[in-house]
Amino acid sequence: LPTPPARLPYVPRVPPMALLGKVTATTFVLEGPRCVFDGHADASDAVWLAVAFANASAAFRNPLSRADVPPYKQLPTARSYMTLETAAAAYSCSAPSPPVLRVGSDTACRDQDRQDPCNGPLPSPGPYRVKFLLMGCRGPKAETRWSEPILLRRAVSPSTIDPAPAGRGSAVVVIASILASLGAVLATAVLGALGAKVWGSLCHRDLGTDAFIRRSYRTHHIPPALPQPLSPGCGCSPPGRCCSAPQPPAPC
Fold first, then answer.
1. Domain spans of the chain?
2. Which of 28, 95, 119, 202 minimizes the number of CB atoms within 10 Å of its CB?
């Protein structure tokens, strides 16, 4: 009988730090099992990731060889599969192993009838459990514990999205309306002030040119000059001509 694999206390988990797309509708991220298999792995060994529905993880059986590894396409029926085959040396303490692994990232698995292990998108929200398994040429050598259930995000149907703003109370709507009204009043006041200033400037400019033209003046009446009577005892020179204006007296 084959030797049972060593049970390691390591529990796979989703990283606790904030990561973009850490859990999506078809994928999730795991911490890499760095330093977990040191002391158990040889240079030719490989580390696999077993993925199973949470309610089917207890029924999962480790394959005896690589040929018995359950493929991704059997997940809907077998309720489990294995993926992410990686050389054990990549997870050693001395190797710069990747900090995280993404499960379900190979979209080509859906379109190709591949027999080799594939890291295809997960078909439903789950939940799922995972564990790492160290495989040698003679079968499993060491394994971790199963993870806690991992639930994926649920995709929202476009028909269920409410086009109206959701979660806004009446107070928020009232405040938004008041702020909009205040903005309109302020804009009107600013425009009015600018208009008054421009109009006043134009009127002041016109006053300098039109004030004199439009101002009326009444002139005093000056009657026409009347003929002056001739001085007695004096004649006109030359004789026979009358002068309308006083002339200096001629010597008699």
1. 6-151
2. 202
Residue with the bigger pLDDT between 30 and 202: it is 30
Binning the chain into helix, strand and coil, the percentages to the nearest 5 are 30, 15, 55
DSSP code of residue 21: T
CA-to-CA dists, residue 91 to 32, 49, 132, 135, 140, angstroms: 7, 13, 11, 14, 17
Average pLDDT, the chain: 77
pLDDT digits (tens, 9 = 90+) for 39-56: 999 989 999 999 999 999
The CATH classification number of 6-151 equals: 2.60.40
Contacts of 146 (CB under 8 A, 6+ apart): 11, 12, 57, 129, 130, 131
Return the closest-CA partner of residue 51 out of 123, 115, 110.
123
Digit-coded pLDDT (tens) for 70-103:
999 989 999 999 999 999 999 999 888 677 999 9
The larger pLDDT score, comparing residue 57 to residue 205, is at: 57
Whether 134 and 114 have beta carbons less than 8 Å apart is answered as no
Round to whole Å and give the CA distance between 151 and 14: 11
Confidence grade of residue 10 (pLDDT, cut at 50, 70, 90): very high
Burial tier of 36 (Cβ tally within 10 Å: 0-12, 13-18, 19+): buried
The span from the CA of 5 to the CA of 135, in Å, is: 9
Whether residue 2 has a cis bond before it, omega within 30° of 0: no
- The pTM (predicted TM-score) of the whole model is 0.62
Any idea how long the chain is?
A: 252
